């Protein structure tokens, strides 16, 4: 691929917010058996949903909304496990960022046990944008974070709500954490100071299920 065409491709990928990575030519050869011009595209196996349309659809259906926002979950197996749990707990949709998170690929599909095909997934430019839209739609946004004194047993998940889970390394972006409606953490009674994000997500979602079943 010549320099001009490469620059044009770079510009187009940036405009469309498409994730890209640079790899040795040997990897491209393995992926395509040598049939490439210096670039290979991987197409998502699922169709992403429009977040605003999905929220409207859920509200108009008469259901009590329960959404899950993922702030740059980077491990595909965690991502897949979270999708599986979300589908099992009746989450209406999962919102992810266009950049910075794990892709939907074969590992995601396998770990989700196929749940990735059964639950709507939406992409937004920034998770904070999703937070503001949820709030404007009267959906309370609850952050899963250790930076609070409240546990999941102190917070109500009965009303329309969205739960944010942060990335494995840095958690929820501080600027996003400032604009949420509530914060909650899991009580940790042992010596280890944190849980795997997919495990923590499961605990939050099943507390929401429990509260809604006994309300």
UniProtKB/TrEMBL annotation:
<dbReference type="InterPro" id="IPR004441">
    <property type="entry name" value="rRNA_MeTrfase_TrmH"/>
</dbReference>
<feature type="domain" description="tRNA/rRNA methyltransferase SpoU type">
    <location>
        <begin position="66"/>
        <end position="206"/>
    </location>
</feature>
<dbReference type="InterPro" id="IPR001537">
    <property type="entry name" value="SpoU_MeTrfase"/>
</dbReference>
<dbReference type="InterPro" id="IPR013123">
    <property type="entry name" value="SpoU_subst-bd"/>
</dbReference>
<keyword id="KW-0808">Transferase</keyword>
<dbReference type="InterPro" id="IPR029026">
    <property type="entry name" value="tRNA_m1G_MTases_N"/>
</dbReference>
<dbReference type="Pfam" id="PF08032">
    <property type="entry name" value="SpoU_sub_bind"/>
</dbReference>
<dbReference type="GO" id="GO:0005829">
    <property type="term" value="C:cytosol"/>
</dbReference>
<dbReference type="GO" id="GO:0006396">
    <property type="term" value="P:RNA processing"/>
</dbReference>
<feature type="domain" description="RNA 2-O ribose methyltransferase substrate binding">
    <location>
        <begin position="5"/>
        <end position="47"/>
    </location>
</feature>
<dbReference type="GO" id="GO:0032259">
    <property type="term" value="P:methylation"/>
</dbReference>
<dbReference type="Pfam" id="PF00588">
    <property type="entry name" value="SpoU_methylase"/>
</dbReference>
<dbReference type="GO" id="GO:0003723">
    <property type="term" value="F:RNA binding"/>
</dbReference>
<protein>
    <submittedName>
        <fullName>23S rRNA (Guanosine-2'-O-)-methyltransferase rlmB</fullName>
    </submittedName>
</protein>
<keyword id="KW-0489">Methyltransferase</keyword>
<dbReference type="GO" id="GO:0008173">
    <property type="term" value="F:RNA methyltransferase activity"/>
</dbReference>
<dbReference type="InterPro" id="IPR029028">
    <property type="entry name" value="Alpha/beta_knot_MTases"/>
</dbReference>
């Amino acid at each position: 691929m010549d320099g001009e065409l490469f620059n044009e491709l770079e510009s187009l990928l940036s405009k469309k917010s498409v994730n890209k990575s640079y790899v040795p030519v040997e990897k491209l050869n393995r992926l395509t058996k040598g049939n490439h011009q210096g670039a290979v595209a991987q197409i998502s196996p699922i169709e992403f949903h429009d977040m605003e349309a999905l929220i409207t659809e859920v509200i108009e259906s008469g259901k009590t909304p329960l959404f899950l926002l993922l702030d740059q979950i980077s491990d595909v197996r965690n991502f897949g496990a979270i999708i599986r749990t979300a589908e099992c707990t009746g989450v209406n949709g999962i919102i992810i960022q266009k950049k910075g998170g794990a892709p939907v690929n074969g590992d995601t599909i396998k770990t989700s046990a196929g749940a990735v095909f059964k639950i709507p997934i939406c992409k937004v430019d920034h998770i904070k944008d999703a937070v503001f839209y949820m709030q404007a739609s009267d959906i309370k946004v609850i952050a899963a974070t250790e930076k609070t004194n409240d546990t999941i047993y102190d917070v109500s998940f009965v009303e329309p709500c969205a739960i944010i889970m942060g990335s494995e390394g840095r958690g929820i972006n501080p600027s996003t954490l400032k604009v949420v409606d509530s914060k909650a953490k899991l009580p940790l009674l042992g010596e280890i100071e944190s849980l795997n994000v997919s495990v923590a997500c499961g605990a939050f979602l099943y507390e929401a299920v429990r509260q809604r079943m006994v309300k």
